Amino acid sequence: MTTPTRPSARCRRLLLELSRYLDGDLTPARRRTVERHIKSCACCGTMTARLRRTVAACRAEGKRRPPRDVMSRAAERIRILVARARVSPD
Amino acid sequence: MKQRKVTKTGGARRVTNSRRMNPVHEEGSAEPEQDEYTELVRSAATGDPEALDRLLMRAQEVAWRFSTSVCGHADDAEDAMQEALIKTYRYVGRIREPGAFRPWLYRTVRNACLMGRRKRVGEPARLQSLDEVLPGPHGPTRRDAPHPGKNPEQLADNAGLRRRLRKALRRLPAPYRAIVFLREMEGLSTREVAKVMGISEDNVKTRLHRARVQLQADLGRDAK
């Protein structure tokens, strides 16, 4: 693998495809081309690894549950709404 | 088996709506949850009180997460939750297409958050340029390199990383932040995100990529 240098025009073009590569959104032939380039280019290899880690970090952060007091108020709002709707359906 | 459809856009051949070899996303990762929503909506629409209760709770949870993650102000979250609750309750009774519920819910929540959202002082209006975030002698390799030996997977449970990620997310312009939230954190498909945001799928992919590039640069910088 080459040492990181100023990104070439090819690297810049490939950068635009890296997310599509990570999302499995490239054709098999294009994916193989990108993989070959990533293995031989430090700049794009580094960027791919960082993007992969960034996506993983976002996933880990996803789907937080609200705090207990917020959940209690949410449940209470549902109870009130449903009870009111029963009394006056319209 | 899904159909493989190959399109050609901007010189790059892409695969859409296909079973994909996926280095990051698990294949069809958004689908089980979509199915779960569809079932829940169907049951709620036929008068199952338990399903309705769960659906209304979920709508409020989504509103809370969107409000705190994208709009960034906990004060607005309860208003957004109330709005999501009432609209979902009204919507369930006249739902025709249970599969369309999830994008509808996120769109509703997004609108509720945007309506109540005050213009934040200092909110970024644009992303950094490519040169500011690319690895290389003039890019973040020199000044933004991640801490050696640490990576976000290893630190996924680490409070420090979570704090840095939230900080990095706040630096993104709001529309980009919304896309990261919907796609990466909530697991919506590209098509669903496009529906929620009212933009094309290609636009979603482009914005998501730009957001990821900026996030990786910010995470690397903050790790130093």
Topology:
The complex is a heterodimer of chains A (90) and B (224).
Chain A: H1 9-22, H2 28-40, H3 42-61, H4 68-87
Chain B: E1 5-9, E2 12-16, H1 31-45, H2 49-71, H3 74-92, H4 101-116, H5 130-133, H6 140-143, H7 159-171, H8 174-185, H9 190-197, H10 201-223
Antiparallel strand pairs in B: 1-2
Helix pairs in contact in B: 1-2, 2-3, 2-4, 2-8, 3-4, 4-9, 7-10, 8-10, 9-10
Summary of the model, kept short:
The complex is a heterodimer of chains A (90) and B (224). With 90 residues, chain A is mainly alpha-helical.
Give your account of this protein's structure.
The complex is a heterodimer of chains A (90) and B (224). Chain A is mostly helical and 90 residues long. In chain A, 74% of the residues lie in helices and 0% in strands. Chain A has 4 helices and no strands. Chain B has a two-stranded antiparallel ribbon with strand order 1-2. Mean pLDDT of chain B is 75; it is low at 1-22, 25-30 and 137-149. Classes of the chains: A mainly alpha (90), B mainly alpha (224). The interface between A and B is large, with 55 and 64 residues.
Task: For this entry, give a set of tags.
heterodimer; A: 4 helices; 0% strand; B: 224 residues; two-stranded antiparallel sheet; 2 strands
Task: Note the run of SSEs of chain A as H and E.
Answer: HHHH
Q: What profile does the largest beta sheet of chain A have?
A: none
Please report the total strand number of chain B as a whole number.
2
Radius of gyration of chain B: 19 Å
Structural class of chain B: mainly alpha
Contiguous low-pLDDT stretches of chain B (5 residues minimum) are 1-22, 25-30, 137-149
